[in-house]
Design goal:
Layout (H helix, E strand, L loop, with lengths): L1 H16 L1 H40 L16 H7 L10 E7 L7 E7 L15
Antiparallel strand pairs: 1-2
Length: 127
């Protein structure tokens, strides 16, 4: 038990003799822990925000999209509708673009039908 006490005594004396180094090391550890916690909190907030936005935009519990930016085959809608636990399956169109005026502003157009087929209609922007 005596050798362990001398190790603690040696460590304490070393920390006390090098106060600036000890303080900076403790500060660096505290900043590192704070950075990890902040990153974790930001990640969780982004997940909640994304889930809230997705629910608000589509109101869907599940959204199926193609891997590429191409259109999903309409036959998949019938496959999804045939599942016994599916209450409602509807096609949805989402189109995003960047506006010229004001520069950098974006516009997202959403369209969905609760049943039936999609029909394209012409749209005009007011203003």
């Amino acid at each position: 038990m005596r050798p362990m006490r001398s190790v603690y005594s040696l460590a304490w004396r070393n920390l006390a003799s090098r106060r600036l180094r000890t303080f900076l090391t403790a500060l660096a550890i505290a900043v590192g822990v704070a950075a990890v916690l902040a990153t974790s909190m930001i990640g969780q907030a982004m997940q909640v925000s994304t889930a809230t936005l997705a629910a608000r935009i589509s109101g869907a519990d599940l959204q199926i999209t193609p891997r590429d930016s191409e259109t999903l085959d309409a036959r998949w809608l019938d496959v999804v509708r045939a599942q016994p636990d599916v209450v409602l399956a509807s096609p949805e169109i989402i189109y995003s673009t960047v506006l010229l005026d004001p520069p950098g502003a974006s516009l997202t157009l959403l369209g969905a039908l609760s049943g039936g087929s999609l029909r394209a209609t012409s749209a005009r922007l007011a203003g």
